[in-house]
Amino acid sequence: MRLTKFIVLFVICTLAISIAMPAFAADGAATYKAKCAACHGPEGQGKVGPAVKGSTLTADQITDLLAKGNDAKKVPHKKAAVGLSAEDAKAVADYVKTLK
Ligand code: HEC
After folding, report:
1. What's the rounded mean pLDDT across residues 80-95?
2. How many angstroms does the Cα of residue 62 sit away from the middle of ligand 1?
């Protein structure tokens, strides 16, 4: 039966895609480790940059800072963070807010 084969294949593909999807979703913790920890410390305790844990900025303000940059800030945050999608910026900002 061709149709049965097609349906089975379709179901397998759908399942495979739905299982694989989270791998593509922005992972704030991984982004933080890769792009922020060198300056802000692995626990957000601060290093070259100031501590970000317990920051008074809201997640939205952090997202904005990363996505657009802020001329009033020092390097590297004068400019938008390089290689960070809007989604990554939001995910990493949410992650920063979980650091205590
Ligand atoms: C090259 C080092 C460096 C990297 C990489 C870096 N930062 Fe920063 N960050 C700084 C410095 C320096 C400041 C202080 C800027 C100022 O006050 O003008 C800062 C400030 C901040 C602030 C503001 C803190 C506050 O309470 O005012 C946040 C939030 C922040 N960084 C988050 C991040 C995130 C998230 C990443 C990763 C996407 C990141 N930074 C990557 C150096 C860095």
Report:
1. 95
2. 9
